[in-house]
Design a protein that fits this description.
The chain has about 110 residues and is mainly α. The chain has one domain (about 5-105). Helix content is about 80%, strand content about 0%. The protein has helices at about 5-30, 35-50, 60-80, 90-105. Helix 1 runs antiparallel to helix 2, helix 1 (about 5-30) packs across helix 3 (about 60-80) and helix 3 runs antiparallel to helix 4. It is a multi-pass membrane protein. Keywords: Cell membrane, Membrane, Transmembrane, Transmembrane helix. Its main location: membrane.
């Protein structure tokens, strides 16, 4: 399994899922309209497809590892899109999650 391929697919999945959720949030909570909601729903569907492109055959393993990418990516998205500033505990938690991603996806499993 290619580390680069896995990383790129996880990043694309995070962009699609977090971006989709953000668009729905903007459409509903910030009253930006149905086009934001529809764009978000389409993006969430894209996320579901991108997740299937991972070389790893185990759905559970891929989604468990992706959870750590989602945590870190959400903090980055919040900082870039909404001006949220993660504190040291946010950053430490995200790093712990990313270490977990590495263990789940790249440690030798039987």
């Amino acid at each position: 399994m290619s580390v680069l391929r896995t990383t790129v697919l996880f990043m694309l999945a995070a962009f699609a899922e977090i971006g989709g959720a953000w668009l729905v949030w903007q459409g509903v909570r910030e009253h930006r309209g149905i086009l934001f909601v529809c764009g978000g729903l389409i993006s969430l569907c894209v996320y579901g497809f991108v997740a299937t492109l991972q070389a790893e055959a185990s759905f559970g393993r891929v989604l468990a590892a992706y959870g750590g990418v989602f945590v870190a990516g959400s903090l980055v998205w919040g900082a870039v899109a909404d001006g949220y500033r993660p504190d040291r505990y946010d950053v430490t938690g995200a790093l712990v999650c990313l270490i977990g991603v590495g263990l789940i996806m790249f440690a030798p499993h039987r």
